[in-house]
Design brief:
Length: about 300
């Protein structure tokens, strides 16, 4: 069975900070990350989806965590085709005039290449400290299966190399009927990890909880099962507590998934208050997973 690491999709979300999960005296960014790393060996960086972090920031993350700790980093949203506010870009790369929200194709080639260079520079301190896990390419729900979409995925993945890449697909066309086998084959042939998900079903944006490893590093993200998935705000969409029976069932499935790969990353993304941290701790106990600090 491969190594299993358990964590959450944030350590600095404001709802988490306000929840009381961190002791009152743990009130600095480095202190919170250090406290988190004493309890979990893995975290997903969500802020990099909204803006490319500075290398000084990521170097600080590496310094605040012990050997064996891992960061999975979500790629900047412009790279995966999401509409992106102009002010999320570095000031010197913002196009003059035009709309307030843009797509990647709205940038000149030179500016787009430079943005990727800065993303690489941001991740370099994590890689140098052996803290970098996978780069998560989370594609938008409107990216339907097809040749153009596959080319888009491969271009973004190529720009992420040499780091491991995990792809999260959020359109049902990738999973309907025979499409699932074709999708898995496509990912395997191009050494791309498949981001498994547990999420609410029955919506246009729903994808099934297919557990499969397409590379040596497998990733699964738990979004919960909120009834407000398509109607609520961010807090309402992810307001969900996994019950003990659910987690015990998942612990069996996760061990089976870990048999398919060298390393499995389990991320709780039901980020509402400290629910993700509580559920991650329960699941880690069921799996017998210790934090990085305890393994060092």
């Amino acid at each position: 069975m491969g190594v299993i690491k358990v964590g959450t999709s944030s350590w600095a979300d404001q709802m988490l900070v306000r929840s009381g999960w961190y002791p009152r005296g743990v009130n600095t960014p480095a202190g919170r990350l250090g406290f988190y790393a004493e309890r979990f060996g893995l975290v997903e960086v969500d802020t990099s989806y909204y803006a490319v972090p500075a290398p000084e920031t990521t170097a600080g993350w590496a310094a605040a965590t012990p050997d064996g700790f891992t960061f999975d980093v979500k790629a900047f949203r412009l790279f995966t085709g999401h509409h992106t506010p102009i002010d999320a870009l570095p000031k010197d790369l913002r196009p003059a005039g035009g709309p307030n929200r843009i797509r990647w194709r709205d940038l000149p080639a030179g500016a787009y290449d430079e943005l990727w260079d800065r993303f690489h520079a941001a991740l370099a301190p994590l890689a140098a400290a052996d803290r970098l896990g996978a780069v998560l390419l989370q594609f938008p729900p409107w990216l339907a299966r097809g040749d153009a979409a596959r080319r888009r995925i491969l271009d973004a993945a190529r720009r992420c190399r040499p780091w491991p890449v995990t792809v999260e697909l959020r359109h049902s066309s990738w999973f309907d009927g025979d499409a699932m086998a074709e999708t898995v084959t496509f990912l395997r042939e191009h050494d791309l990890g498949y981001a498994c998900v547990d999420m609410p079903q029955g919506h246009v944006s729903s994808v099934p909880p297919v557990l499969v490893a397409t590379t040596d590093l497998a990733v699964i993200r738990f979004h919960g099962h909120s009834t407000a998935w398509e109607s609520g705000d961010k807090q309402e969409r992810f307001r969900y507590a996994y019950g003990e029976r659910e987690l015990r069932h998942w612990s069996v499935l996760l061990r089976e998934l870990a048999d398919q790969c060298a390393e499995l990353h389990v991320l709780m993304n039901n980020c509402c208050g400290d629910q993700a941290q509580r559920d991650a701790a329960s699941l880690a106990d069921l799996l017998g997973v210790a934090p990085a600090a305890a393994r060092a």
